[in-house]
Specification:
Strand content of chain A: 25-35%
Order of helices and strands of chain B: EHEHEHHEEHEHEHEHEHHH
Shape of chain A: elongated
Largest interface: A-B, 56 and 62 residues
Number of strands of chain B: 9
Structural class of chain A: alpha/beta
Helix content of chain B: 25-40%
Order of helices and strands of chain A: EHEHEHEEHEEHEHEHEHEHHH
Distance between the termini of chain A: 13 Å
Oligomer: heterodimer
Largest sheet of chain A: 9 strands, mixed
Strand order of the largest sheet of chain B: 3-4-5-2-6-1-7-8-9
Number of strands of chain A: 11
Distance between the termini of chain B: 10 Å
Radius of gyration of chain A: 22 Å
Chain lengths: 280, 289
């Protein structure tokens, strides 16, 4: 089963849920898809066993062959290639690596070279496999890195995906084709607004989901009311607890410091399993 | 006119609360919410929308099955796995590159322009505000951010205002880069957690990469004095100015629940700390010229 953890709003506790869930279950693989700001490794402290670069193919023009016809500029949807005075200029930071320009070049004057945009690291901690991606500094596009990290999904294991915040392309790339989405929120107007946006995404993707309300006693009841109206299950509530805040701030894991939480996360898993089995 | 952007790397550190507070304290400013993915500032500032515009951006492929001869070239050329087995398009995966459309021998694939969201020019009790809403599961948030910023800047120039105050988004990718390029001052909001520090470090690499000066605010600094100490040491090593520290206080959540900026809601240590931060920032930026 593949469970993704998302939120809309940042800082609601996605990483806390993903890490603690992964470390409470057997035979898990934790995949951190928040490649702009990956944090799971701070808590899991895995032994990294392998590293791999992620690249996208960007055009390289062979000036000897090019006659400046401009076909490449015409087919590029991203303004990443321009022809000025019969000379081709490439803007690598705008290129999505679709390959259209080199395919359509009538003189076959465009090759592709790899441009590194990020890195993937894989390893383990105890019985948990760990994988994360990291976008290189200054790079605009995280989805290609997220797609590569997701290739580490192993269907024989329980896979937990930590998604980035927001509602646009990076989030969609991280959570699509997963079996269940946990949405972590907080009971404030910000939490509610961003939860409703995230629910919109989840509905569009047609993936079953449930909500965890973090710091459930700071704020008001509107998130709970919203979930009841929209018929979205509330899977878990985590009250604000200074101990948890301290554990988190120091990079420690709740289920290791407060083992009583392990059963709560196992119950969470059972609830998700029951929802998925019900849908089948 | 100077542009100030509030960003954080890590989400949930208090960007929007701080942006709202600066908006309440600064005079002669335009407010821009550039967290177009999950915009929240309107919940504090209650903007009255004066003008609403449609944001069109990018394209999505669409297969006309009546023209399609099932040759499969589209599926072969697509690098984003967006062409399904029946040669229709999965719009969520489609990046709008149009490769399939150009490659199709029957001209069966049309590129349709996306309506990706809306953007608004509004009035608030603190002055004009430009904000946006990206459509569900849409892309090109970077372009929408640039558009919102451009509009906010135009209004500020028209009215001869001193400030554009920008609420940014979390992360370090496309919308963040779009929100910081060309600004006068980046204010990074962090919190005393190892995640907060880790993300602030990556964010500083980004501001350095684009050669933009950054200052820092440590929010909820008393939640972990050890990590606050680490952030202070790091800031000193990197020569980043700490604009101020803000304590953890439940009144901040209460103000949000009441739809107000904390500055309007109460008068306590937090509002005093925020007041000092704005005084410092205002003075320094006015001296810069």
């Amino acid at each position: 089963m593949i469970i993704s953890v998302a939120s809309g709003k940042g800082g609601t506790g996605k990483t806390t849920v993903a890490v603690n869930l992964a470390l409470s279950l057997a035979n898990t693989r934790l995949i951190d898809c928040d490649v702009e700001e990956p944090n799971c490794h701070i808590f899991v402290k895995p032994d990294i066993e392998s590293r791999r670069k992620v690249s996208i193919p960007i055009p390289q023009v062979n000036d000897d062959k090019c006659d400046g016809c401009g076909r490449c500029q015409e087919v590029c949807a991203y303004n990443a290639i321009a022809v000025v005075n019969k000379k081709v200029i490439v803007f690598p930071e705008l290129c999505h690596g679709c390959g259209s320009c080199s395919y359509f070049c009538p003189l076959k004057a465009i090759d592709e070279k790899n441009k590194e945009i990020g890195i993937i690291e894989a390893g383990r901690k105890g019985g948990t496999d760990f994988v994360h991606g990291r976008l290189n500094i200054g790079m605009m596009m995280s989805p290609p890195v997220i797609r590569e990290v997701k290739k580490y999904i192993d269907k024989k294991k329980t896979v937990i995906i930590d998604a980035p915040p927001g509602t646009s392309c990076p989030v969609i790339t991280a959570i699509k084709d997963t079996d269940f989405i946990i949405l972590v929120t907080e009971p404030t107007p910000f939490g509610l607004n961003d939860l409703s946006l995230a629910i919109g995404v989840v509905k569009k993707l047609g993936i079953p989901s449930g909500v965890i309300i973090n710091r459930s006693d700071l704020g008001n009841k509107k998130v709970e009311n919203y979930c009841a109206e929209e018929n979205i299950p509330v899977l878990m509530k985590i009250p604000f607890d200074r101990r948890i805040a301290e554990i988190y701030s120091g990079g420690d894991v709740i289920v290791e410091v407060l083992p009583e939480y392990k059963n709560k996360f196992r119950d969470l898993y059972k609830k998700i399993e029951a929802i998925i089995n019900n849908k089948k | 006119m100077k542009q100030i952007v509030i960003i954080s790397g890590k989400g949930g550190t208090g960007k929007t609360v701080i942006t709202g507070s600066l908006a309440a304290m600064a005079k002669d400013k335009v407010i821009a919410d550039c967290d177009v993915d999950a915009a929240d500032l309107h919940l504090l500032l209650d903007p009255e929308i004066k003008k609403s515009h449609i944001f069109k951006s990018g394209f999505t492929a669409f297969t006309h099955k009546d023209k399609c001869i099932d040759c499969g070239i589209c599926k072969k050329v697509c690098r984003f796995d967006a062409v399904k087995d029946d040669f229709t398009i999965d719009p969520v995966s489609c990046e709008g590159c149009a490769f399939c459309s150009y490659a199709c021998p029957e001209n069966a694939i049309e590129m349709k322009e996306n309506i990706s969201g809306k953007w608004f020019v509004s009035e608030t009790r603190f002055g004009p505000m430009v904000h946006a809403r990206l459509g569900i599961a849409e892309e090109n948030s970077g372009k929408l951010v640039s558009l919102v910023r451009q509009k906010a800047k135009e209004i500020a120039e028209d009215r001869n205002y001193k400030w554009v105050i920008i609420d940014g988004s979390p992360g370090i990718g496309c919308p963040v880069i779009a929100s910081i390029t060309g600004v006068d001052c980046v204010v990074m909001v962090t919190e005393p957690t190892l995640s907060g520090l880790h993300d602030a470090k990556r964010l500083l690499d980004v501001t350095n990469h684009f050669n933009i000066e950054a200052r820092i605010i440590i929010n909820k600094y008393d939640l972990n004095p050890d990590v606050t100490g680490k952030i202070e040491k790091w800031s000193k090593d990197k020569n980043i100015e700490i604009l101020g520290k803000i304590e953890f206080n439940r009144s901040v959540v209460e103000s949000v629940v009441n739809g107000k900026t904390v500055i309007e809601y109460t008068n306590n240590k937090v509002t005093e700390q925020l007041g000092n931060i704005w005084k410092t920032l205002e003075r320094e930026l006015e001296e810069e010229k």
